[in-house]
Amino acid sequence: MGVDEPLRWIRRHNHAVSPPVRFAGIDIPAAGGSLLPSLTPVADYLRQIDPDTLPLIQEAMRIAGSFAGTSAAAAAPAWTRLPTADQDALTATLTRLLIRFRAVEPLYVSRGDRRSYDIALRRLEGACQADYGFRAMAGLFAGNGLTADTSARDVYMAESVLWHLERNDPGTRIVLVAHNAHIQRSPISFNGHLTGFPMGQHLHNALGNDYFALGLTSSGGHTAEMVRDEQARFGFTIEHTALQPPEPSSIEAAFAAAGLGLSVAGLRQARTWAADSAPGPDRIRLQSTFLHTPVLDAFDGILHTPASTVADNVECEADDPGGVRGGAGPGTHARQEAQGEGDRAAAP
């Protein structure tokens, strides 16, 4: 993912400052690969707080364990092969548990404490959102999915960010590291078909201008293209792919024409200019292709590097457990020419 050195820098930084930079995950369990990372601690919680519900969550864990994988790309196809009765039983059981959690909140808090209840509830919500995602992905791959049905994951991630903000001191700031397609503020469409509402759109709606979407891209170099392969460890393989020259009307073409090299462009003021003149760039790189989107509306700023490279450890990090990606494409990072430039990254 190309963030190894920035993370090491932050760890060294934390040894010398107070308060330290804190890290938190925001994604659904195993980035959609398995429900067990969420359901296991929820079962431990219920064992102490509401043991009568243990048979319910144990049944959910049994079904979830039968198709658990290392990523959504591996788990989703396995989910489609489950008997329909198991698919429906898993959804019904998770929904029943979630409704009970919310309905008897005073009971659970009185038997434990507020913090442990909030965390257990959030984990269960993550499992429910991930379960919904399996159905959405199945529909997407089959060609009969509902419009924008894959948005459930991004809604959960946005709510996770807000969850952490609400439970921290006033004035807390979060640096959120994720793929461009997760942080952008406008809907995602492919070939004119609406496919999802990204996390960034939800955060912008909730936080207004307090949310700043900084995209990352490059005008050249290589990217790690993901190719679906159910036999591979993560449900896909990685192909090192050379980036083609920027397409006309892309933000990359604008950077290349300006000859700025490693640079940052603020887009908020540019929106005002574009409203009175010609529209801005209408596409940005997405792996080795281009996503057609109004760039000035989608992002508040763009960090551009002349070339991106594929991280050496991309294969072992391909499951993306925290939803953390570089904007130039999964598994890529900006190879920055100025020594030390990469040391100022942070994580959620």
From TrEMBL:
EC class name: hydrolase
Membrane-traversing stretches: none
Known EC number: 3.1.1.-
InterPro entries: Emycin_Estase, Hydrolase/PRTase-associated
Keyword terms of this UniProt record: Hydrolase
Biased composition (Basic and acidic residues): 334-348
Region of interest called Disordered, as start-end residue ranges on this chain: 314-348
Keyword Hydrolase recorded: yes
GO terms for MF: hydrolase activity
Classification via CDD domains: Ere-like
PANTHER family reported for this sequence: ESTERASE, PUTATIVE (AFU_ORTHOLOGUE AFUA_1G05850)-RELATED
Name under which the protein is recorded: Erythromycin esterase family protein
Organism annotation: Streptomyces sanglieri
